Amino acid sequence: MSFEKHDIISIRDLSKNEILHILDTAKKIEDNPDSRLLENKMMASLFFEPSTRTRLSFESAMRRLGGEVIGFADPDATSLKKGETLWDTVKMAENYSDIIVIRNPVEGSARLAAEAVDVPVINAGDGANQHPTQTLLDLYTILKEKGTLENLNVGFLGDLNYGRTVHSLVVALSHFNTNMFFISPKALKIPDSYLDELKQKGIQYHEEEDLFKVSRELDVLYVTRIQKERFPDPLEYRKYVGVYIIDRKLLDHIKPELRILHPLPRVDEIHPELDDTEHAVYFDQAKNGIPVRQAILALILGRIK
Amino acid sequence: MKGKTFKISAIKNGTVIDHVSTDHIFKVMDILKLNESNDVVTMGTNLESKKMGKKGLIKIGGRYLTKQEADMIAIIATGANISIIKDYGVENKFRVEIPDIIENIVKCVNTNCVTNAYNVPTRFHVINRKTLKIRCHYCERMTDMSEIEMV
Ligand SMILES: [Zn+2]
């Protein structure tokens, strides 16, 4: 399997074996980091919208392996209204770098950028569409915590309609015979197109509004934010958001081995009183972004096969 | 009442597109960009058909549609038949089939898609031929073919 010069645009582009190879490489790098692995390699970090968390994670991943970084963190939005700017910017960056990391709120922009240039492109988020390195670090966290990705009972809680991280993780986990539980208010249920996809692949799933009805079965609970902007009526929002906050009460309704993930940043959907329980792994999850992104960079840049 | 049947004159060389539903005939013209072409195009709607009740038919003089071109109309006119005419005879006849990839014919329904934001040619992957589901190559949004709009 060779990743050299491959783009990472969508989790859909990766086979099960490719996903496992990335996670395996991440483990090796984490256990045995080599601070000169990416020496003489240059990463262009093109953030057309601010995302400090993702940007710092990529830049730190590159620098800790001896690579270098150029780029911008948040260009003036008004100068980006024209399509030429996206196209021209990646063409320009191609001249100065060995790999491009791009974040742009327009959906499909990373795919277009990858078609524009010869150097490999990594999608660091294109609007509501894809953020494949987030999905890979979610998988890496689950693998580390549970020792396997196969045959797990995974619950998804919160906004399952708009949640990009949830959609990508659902697609990725469908390689691993996951039994999925979608727990959300009806107004924020997972789109039918994802359920159709699961049906077609023969993956078991359950839709539920009440977390406690299914929480005892879960190995993993993936929590996402419910955003106020999604609700035209603020009263409606308050009604829902209260129901989907988890706190110590949850502990009476779970297996002792349950692990709770969250893509962060959280608002108030996970009470801080859960933070120091063994169930909470969301801070480790964020940290896991480093070895996963290092693995992707090293594989694409051909420094690891 | 034979005398009342409307006849479209035969063509010497070209393509006949038959069994298009009358509702779709103008969209088929659009997809094949026949309104912009210099070919001699004759068209009929509401023709009598044993199979369909009413049907539409298009004849394009002097131009042979390839299978690939013809398949593009399958996304709206699933039952259409194509006949390639040479020297007044049928040289080849086939039914249109929905292609794997649909290029630059339909718009993406997602207003935040790069194809709409930046005027990029569209491309869709056909996911399910039976339910007519397509996925945008760029933003990955799934669309029912019934919701589509032409470019
Ligand atoms: Zn699109």
What's the domain count of chain B? 2
Task: Please state the second-level CATH architecture of the largest domain in chain A.
Answer: 3-Layer(aba) Sandwich
The termini of chain B sit apart by 42 Å
User: What average pLDDT do the residues of chain A reach?
Assistant: 93
Write down the overall geometry of chain B: elongated
How large is the share of residues in beta strands of chain B? 35-45%
Radius of gyration of chain B: 17 Å
How much of the polypeptide of chain A forms β-strand, as a percent range? 5-15%
* CATH overall fold name of the largest domain in chain A: Rossmann fold
Number of strands of chain A: 9
Q: What are the distinct ligands in this entry?
A: zinc ion
Q: Helix- and strand-based class of chain A?
A: alpha/beta
Shape of chain A: globular
Number of helical stretches of at least 4 residues of chain A: 11
Largest interface summary = A-B, 20 and 17 residues
Q: How would you characterize this protein structure?
A:
The complex is a heterodimer of chains A (305) and B (151). With 305 residues, chain A is α/β, with parallel strands linked by helices. Chain A has two domains: 129 residues, Rossmann fold, CATH 3.40.50.1370; 155 residues, Rossmann fold (3-Layer(aba) Sandwich), CATH 3.40.50. Chain A contains eleven helices and nine strands. Chain A has a five-stranded parallel sheet. A four-stranded parallel sheet of chain A has the order 2-1-3-4, with helices on both faces. In chain A, helix 2 links the parallel strand 1 and strand 2. The N and C termini of chain A lie close together (7 Å). The model of chain A has no long low-confidence stretch (mean pLDDT 93). Chain B has two domains: 82 residues, Aspartate carbamoyltransferase regulatory subunit, N-terminal domain (Alpha-Beta Plaits); 47 residues, SH3 type barrels. Chain B is built from three helices and nine strands; from the N terminus they run E-H-E-E-H-E-E-E-H-E-E-E. In chain B, a hairpin with a 3-residue loop joins strand 2 and strand 3. The model of chain B has no long low-confidence stretch (mean pLDDT 87). Classes of the chains: A alpha/beta (305), B mainly beta (151). At the A-B interface, helix 3 and helix 4 of A face helix 3 of B. The structure holds zinc ion. Zinc ion binds next to loops of chain B.
